[in-house]
Design brief:
Keywords: ATP-binding, Kinase, Magnesium, Metal-binding, Nucleotide-binding, Thiamine biosynthesis, Transferase. With 317 residues, the chain is an alpha+beta fold. The protein is 34% helix and 23% strand. The strands form two sheets. The chain has a six-stranded mixed beta sheet with strand order 6-8-5-9-7-10, sandwiched between helices. Strands 1-4-2-3 form a four-stranded mixed beta sheet. The protein is globular and about 65 Å long. It starts with a helix and ends in a 19-residue tail after the last strand.
Length: 317
């Protein structure tokens, strides 16, 4: 099977909102009148971002999900995406599962594939997403202010716990392992929550490399500090059954959660919770933004927690 036969069989679909999609040298996408484009790119490399054991359908889902999570962190509504796919060989069973998972998530968010590239090489997946957001309403990392409340969506740490099981460092029974493995391999981007937080959140980021690291981006860009209550960081019952040290590492530095960490004015708690309900996801207040630079992590008694771990770094981890 040649390159263009592969594209036609597994990736070509009827054009929707795109002005011009697959089949020409460029795609043409028009945002809604008066809207601004939001654009993000991620690359997934086998052995670096995903294990060889991941089912192709879940890999297709995750490849798009991690990009949609970036749009969510900016409060942008998805429009379209491109796919650059390097394959060691043409494996039709892999392609069928991969494209099925990819398009199931794409359809759920009404986003269409408008172009890209395929080539031979080590398995690499590159996706660029395009979204739209009203002018001046994009959620940024730079808007947090002293006195703002610090929030996070969903629960953190299950993806890292699954990785530790794969590494042989922890053990779980079958049902529990299936649950945390799904969290690692099939994350749910919080697009609806990002849109619901427009005009409410003062800053936001998605938790991709670990809460400490991704919150650190907000602190640096906003030039503020924060007090983070480690015991308030939401976690699943499966993770709560693990030793306290494992819980801390997984929730604070685990990564691959693809939840949103964000700030909002201190008096906006009811509105933030209403936004979470509207988006169908729990939101939890986990700290306070402060004028003094730096991150102070505390336990249930207010004592300092000194992290022994670092969030994921593509060139250090």
């Amino acid at each position: 099977m040649g390159e263009f036969d592969l594209i036609a069989k597994y990736f070509e679909r009827p054009r929707g909102r795109a002005v011009l999609g697959i089949g020409d040298d460029c795609a043409i996408v028009a945002p809604s009148p008066g809207m601004q484009l939001a654009i993000s790119t991620d690359t997934l490399v086998e052995g670096r971002h995903f294990l060889s054991t991941v089912p192709p359908e879940r890999l297709g889902h995750k490849a798009l999900a991690v990009n949609l999570s970036d749009l969510a962190a900016c409060g942008a509504a998805p429009l379209a995406f491109t796919l650059a796919l390097a394959l060691p060989r043409v494996d039709e069973a892999f392609l069928a599962g991969f494209s099925r998972g990819l398009f199931a998530l794409a359809d759920a968010h009404r986003i269409e594939l408008v172009g890209g590239d395929t080539t031979a090489g080590p398995l690499n997946i590159g996706i660029t997403v395009f979204g739209e957001v009203p002018p001046g309403q994009a959620l940024l990392r730079s808007g947090a202010r002293p006195g703002d409340a610090l929030w996070v969506s969903g629960t953190l740490g299950d993806a890292r716990l699954a990785l530790e099981v794969f590494r042989g460092q922890r053990s779980l029974d079958g049902d529990a392992f299936d649950t945390v493995r799904r969290a690692m391999e099939q994350p749910q981007p919080r697009v609806a929550l990002g849109e619901a937080l427009r005009g409410l959140a003062t800053s936001a980021a998605d938790v991709s490399d670990g809460l400490l690291g991704d919150l650190g981006h907000i602190l640096r860009r906003s030039r503020v500090g924060a007090r983070l209550a480690a015991h308030d960081v939401p976690r699943s019952e499966i993770l709560r059954a693990q030793p306290a040290s494992v819980q801390l590492e997984c929730t604070l530095a685990g990564g691959d959660d693809y939840e949103l960490v964000f700030t909002a004015p201190a008096g906006a708690d009811d509105a933030v919770r209403a936004a979470g309900r509207a988006a169908g996801v729990a939101v939890t207040r986990i700290g306070l933004m402060e004028a003094e630079p730096g991150l102070r992590v505390v336990d249930a008694e207010g004592g300092p927690v000194v992290p022994q771990w670092a969030s994921f770094d593509h060139f250090k981890s």
